[in-house]
Amino acid sequence: MNRQTSTEHPLPLAGVTVVAIEQALAAPLCTCRLAEMGARVIKIERPEGDFARGYDAAANGNSSYFLWTNRGKESVVLDFKLADDAALLRRLIAEADIFVQNLAPGALLRAGFDSATLRELHPQLITCDITGYGTGSETSKLKAYDFLVQCESGLVSVSGAPDAPGRIGVSICDIGAGMNATIAVLSALTLRDRTGQGSGVSVSLFDGAADWMTVPYVHERYGKGAPAPQGLKHPSIAPYGAYRTSEGRDTVISIQNDREWGNFCEVFLGNREIASDVRFATNNARVQNRKALDALIGDAFRTRALDEALSLLGDANIAYGQLRQVADMTTHPALRTWSMAADDVELQMVAPPVRAPWDAQRFKPAPKLGEHTARIREEFAAETEEAGA
């Protein structure tokens, strides 16, 4: 239903129109992914704008959050509580394939733009609602910012260091909800291709976090209790963690099976017989005797410089990595970036995680607040009857 299609790139969602009433991170990330696949995304903003616009000014005076999750969209300012703006929104939705929203529960129901009503009016429409805790429970009306959901879901309780649980350092519940919403929308599009009917899909931040917590949940409910925060160690696998070299550099190793453990003992520790020590012969034994294991491995690392340690790990075919800072990540050889304009300055932004034949190698800019309002109002103006018709 897209009135503006492009033939420059054979994008998978070219011709698809998305209308989004969105803010912050989860819904904007979902619709950003759709825009990267070629969809036309019309972002509805209140007069003061998506509040993520003011989160920071790190990107050449712009919000890093906003530029990341709103590139390639069109921004329209309207207030759907006003009759004329509500009529415009209805016309936009009538032309849309997908409607995405993450307002507070009940906000759109009161205005007559809830998903069920919209799909009744437009059976081919796909609607996606993103909430904090879903609907129908006592938590449904709680405000659900990322860190709060990290705490409510138990993510924080298994993160951080012993006796110092910590917030995961990025907005992972928002990000997860956005990606789950993208999956849901694409699934609904595939179903519509077969049936001609739209679907209503929904995701919540808590559901996504709870899904990631499945292993601690099973340990707590059916095992011997959920693992406590482990810092730079793995609660179920050993050795799997960080060890410091002679010059104070942290190297992370991961040994997944007893064959790798034997190689590590022979090449790195210089003693194959350690692999058959009853304390360390199996992964379960190594986890139970982690303190003695870490002391043994830590001593071996402290006697070696980083280059020597990495060389030996490579000889033993052991998986390893270095504990890097964000500054190191910006120059990492695996990092891919695309250009993006921000106020006439070219920024190098992290490239999309999906590599595809339709990669553009460049991001479209994020819109200024209300940048497309006049054009959208003109394009979707109310149709009037011709005189004498």
UniProtKB/TrEMBL annotation:
Pfam families: CoA_transf_3 (PF02515)
Statement: the UniProt record of this protein carries the keyword Protein transport: no
Protein keywords: Transferase
Keyword Transferase annotated: yes
Gene3D superfamilies tied to this protein: Crotonobetainyl-coa:carnitine coa-transferase, domain 1, formyl-coa transferase, domain 3
GO function terms (MF aspect): CoA-transferase activity
InterPro entries cross-referenced by the UniProt entry: CoA-transferase_III_domain, CoA-Trfase_fam_III, CoA-Trfase_III_dom3_sf, CoA-Trfase_III_dom_1_sf
PANTHER family reported in the protein's UniProt record: SUCCINATE--HYDROXYMETHYLGLUTARATE COA-TRANSFERASE
Protein's name in the database: CaiB/BaiF CoA-transferase family protein
